[in-house]
Design a protein that fits this description.
This protein has 478 residues and is an alpha+beta fold. It has 15 helices and 21 strands. It is 40% helix and 21% strand.
């Protein structure tokens, strides 16, 4: 069996083992013109002879290298000879990198996948084939190892993963080393382009590729690349199992969005505790990339020390232990003006909008109870009986003597101090002076974001309803 036949047999078996392509599917194939992507294209063309499916080649013109025009022309001619549908998209990667404040490498990767997803949607494709190989996988694993990644990062690239819009990213030549790829192309007499940026040490991955991998192969153990790939596969299997256990644990310990039962969580193995905390923090993070092992260690201390306290993570995420729960929140005031009313804002039962510094806008309106529909059941829109207001409304922070009315277990109306209410509601001390209240003298009508006083609830005897609504960031808060 020659190199040509041996390589195809290896790749086709790998594809079938991972169920990469089904009959009749549309597959978007990223082709840069380099050896890897050209090899991918021609192997898929051969696989078409075994299974009917459609190929849509996509070439991204990055606008980085002087040879970019030649590469685009090369891929176009390659596709014309093979009678394959071809699309070229131009993307200003340097401009994107500058705008997003990321490296050109990162911007290029983001642009490629965004374009692949876009064309897949246009063409009705379900799979997107990319040309990562075994060497790429080894470089990725080492890169993540040096950065201190967890098991997920050390598992490297998967042969197939879920993408966007129900697409799947497939890597048919992940089983091939770079030497095998070039040997296959040479054996078949297929030309390819050389990317000059691959010769530079400007990129971290290139330094691993040019220096660390060759040294490992030559000076440590022959077959190092393949051994790293095998280890990554074992770690990928371990990661899949741990992911299942973590998801099961989350279901058991979650008591609401961003709230975990500390006692239940502590019953799980420490590795699962850490993964649950990491997953919870990622839910509140725009990227998840800046949540690291040091932050997980800090969060673990909340479980290990039975005291109510808080720690701060990137992106303004605050993680607190409160009365047996681990609570995740985003401190929206951390990067903005803190909500602090220098003095009480007298509303004088006026209708209109009132700005609360650092918090939002309070909207007030009055209407006839006969026009009312169903009473709102959310935290930031409340209806009050306007006829029961004795003095005039004011919005302010708490002060000595504040109280509200509640009903006890027997249904009797009782006064409760605002301080006791906040204690009963487990509101941390440091937050109590920041919460605005709507008051009529010392009587608290509404703890903003919390409950209203029973005394001012709308009943069948109410004639005029006062609606108070807090709006923030141009959206009604629910």
């Amino acid at each position: 069996m020659n190199i040509w036949e041996k390589t195809e047999k290896k790749v086709f078996s790998f594809m079938e083992e991972n169920h990469m392509v089904d009959p009749g599917e549309q597959v978007v194939v990223g082709v840069s013109g380099g050896a890897d992507s050209v090899c991918l294209l021609f192997l898929l063309l051969e696989y078409q002879k075994k299974m009917p499916f459609e190929i849509q080649v996509v070439h991204i013109h990055h606008g980085i290298r002087t040879e970019a025009e030649e590469d685009a022309k090369f891929v176009e001619e390659l596709c014309q000879k093979a009678e394959v549908s071809y699309v070229c998209r131009r993307v200003d990667v340097p401009g994107l990198a500058a705008a997003k404040k990321v490296s050109t490498e990162t911007a290029g990767r983001q642009a490629r996948y965004e374009t692949f997803y876009e064309i897949a949607k246009e063409k009705g494709a379900t799979k997107i084939a990319v040309a990562h190989n075994t060497n790429d996988n080894a470089e990725t694993v080492l890169f993540h190892l040096f950065r201190g990644s967890g098991i997920g990062g050390l598992a490297g690239m998967s042969p197939m993963r879920k993408g966007e819009d129900d697409n799947y990213i497939i890597r048919p030549i992940l089983c091939l080393e770079r030497e095998e790829i070039e040997s296959y192309l040479t054996d078949r007499g297929i030309p390819w382009c050389t990317d000059s940026t691959n010769d530079s040490d400007d990129y971290t991955r290139n330094r691993i590729r040019h220096h660390i991998i060759p040294y490992a192969e030559e000076k440590i153990v022959q077959g190092a690349v393949e051994h790293v790939a095998q280890s990554a596969q074992s770690l990928r299997e371990a990661e899949e199992y741990l992911s299942q256990q973590t998801e099961s644990a989350i279901q058991m310990v979650s008591v609401g969005r961003g709230r975990l039962d500390c006692s239940r969580l502590s019953q799980h193995p420490e590795i699962i505790q850490k993964r649950v905390l990491f997953a919870a923090a990622k839910e509140f993070s725009p990227t998840g990339k800046d949540i690291g092992q040091i932050h997980v260690k800090d969060m673990m201390s909340l479980i290990q020390k039975e005291e109510n306290r808080s720690i701060h993570l990137p992106f303004g995420i605050v993680v607190s232990r409160r009365y047996g729960e681990i609570v995740f929140e985003v401190d929206t005031l951390s990067s903005k003006e803190e909500c602090h009313l220098q003095q009480a804002l007298n509303l004088d039962l006026s209708e209109g909008s009132f700005v609360l510094p650092g918090l939002g806008t309070l909207e007030i309106r009055k209407f006839n109870a006969k026009e009312a529909g169903e009473i709102p059941r959310n935290r930031y829109t409340k209806w009050l009986d306007c006829g029961k207001i004795i003095q005039s409304l004011e919005i302010r922070h708490r002060s000595e003597g504040d109280f509200l009315c509640i009903r006890n277990a027997d249904g009797e109306m009782k006064h409760k101090t605002l301080k006791q209410y906040m204690i009963d509601e487990k509101i941390p001390k440091q937050e109590r002076d920041r919460i605005p209240i709507l008051a009529d003298g010392s009587h608290v009508l509404w703890v903003v974001g919390g409950r209203i006083s029973e005394e001012f609830k709308v009943t069948e005897n109410t004639n005029t309803i006062l609606e108070v609504k807090l709006i923030r960031n141009d959206c009604e808060m629910q």
